[in-house]
Amino acid sequence: MNIVVIGAGGVGGYFGGKLAQAGFDVTFIARGKHLEAIKNKGLQVKSILGDFTVHPNVTDAIQDIKNPDLVILGVKSWQVTEVAKVLKSVITKNTMVLPLQNGADNADKLLTVLPKENVLAGLCKIVSKVELPGVINHFTFEPEIVFGEYDNSKSDRIKQLKSVFDKAGFKNTLSDDIHLDIWKKFLFIGTISGIGALTRAVFGVMRETPGIRKIIKDTAQEMVAVANAKGVGLTQQDLAMIINVIDKLDYNTTASMQRDIMEGKPSELENFNGYIVSQGKLLGVDTPTNAFIYHCLLPQEMKARS
């Protein structure tokens, strides 16, 4: 299988690295010092499950790829649409495009640009980062990809992809309801990221501060209401599960969007709290907590993007 991984960061670098290690033909799209390090020394993955180094193809030009069978998107949510526009000219009618970003609407963004037969839906669970150019550090939690056809059908190609991921040796799940699974993850990341950026506090501090804990729960409750209005069956049990996960995570944990905002980088604010606010307006669901977080963080986001 000819596989292209766009974005060789903590997500794409780990899963793409595992696919390359298993012997698949993998090409990474990377930039700058990261590109040069991979080109000259290979991609080094440091992992709690075992370190390894691979020497895949790597380029900075999506236009250079030829007839990919699978494209894994490891870029940020706000980059998906622009990447899809470039991809459109290089994929074939048989290419599968699998988005693994945080957020609820990445497959929908792809469908605004690409033919529906190209688009899968998915998510990943991993705690990893680029430690140095050419070096990925996976430092906790067993990585997993959850994926499926957009319409949840069990097609031959999706079963084949399951076998590819199995051969690569990482945990993976062919979902029975991929949109519900995406929203379950989104409920977690969307609940904690914005308020983390606003308070600039670690999870332990936030969950132990009564006023902030209430904001976390209110944020999640609004997300459940929006999901339900969209026909996605999130429940109060899902909300309770997410709060339980937050309570059990390492005290000093922070979210990636939170770190991006604190470092003055462009973030996924528009795709997290901003998405809930915009969908709430569209569907007639009140989202005052998400709106407060979103509008308080928006000036920093605009400054980072300028």
From TrEMBL:
Superkingdom of this protein's organism: Bacteria
Presence of the UniProt keyword Oxidoreductase in the record: yes
Catalytic class of the enzyme: oxidoreductase
GO cellular component, one term: cytoplasm
Gene Ontology terms for molecular function: 2-dehydropantoate 2-reductase activity
Pathway this chain belongs to: Cofactor biosynthesis; (R)-pantothenate biosynthesis; (R)-pantoate from 3-methyl-2-oxobutanoate: step 2/2
Range of residues in the leader sequence: none
UniProt keyword terms in alphabetical order: NADP, Oxidoreductase, Pantothenate biosynthesis
Domain Ketopantoate reductase C-terminal: 177-297
Enzyme Commission number(s) of this protein: 1.1.1.169
Any one biological process term the GO annotation gives: pantothenate biosynthetic process
Keyword rRNA-binding: no
A Pfam family that the UniProt record links to this protein: ApbA
InterPro entries documented for this protein: 6-PGluconate_DH-like_C_sf, 6PGD_dom2, ApbA, KPA_reductase, KPR-Related, KPR_N, NAD(P)-bd_dom_sf
Domain Ketopantoate reductase N-terminal residue range list: 3-151
Family annotation (SUPFAM superfamilies): 6-phosphogluconate dehydrogenase C-terminal domain-like, NAD(P)-binding Rossmann-fold domains
Catalytic activity: (R)-pantoate + NADP(+) = 2-dehydropantoate + NADPH + H(+)
Family: Belongs to the ketopantoate reductase family.
Function: Catalyzes the NADPH-dependent reduction of ketopantoate into pantoic acid.
Protein name: 2-dehydropantoate 2-reductase
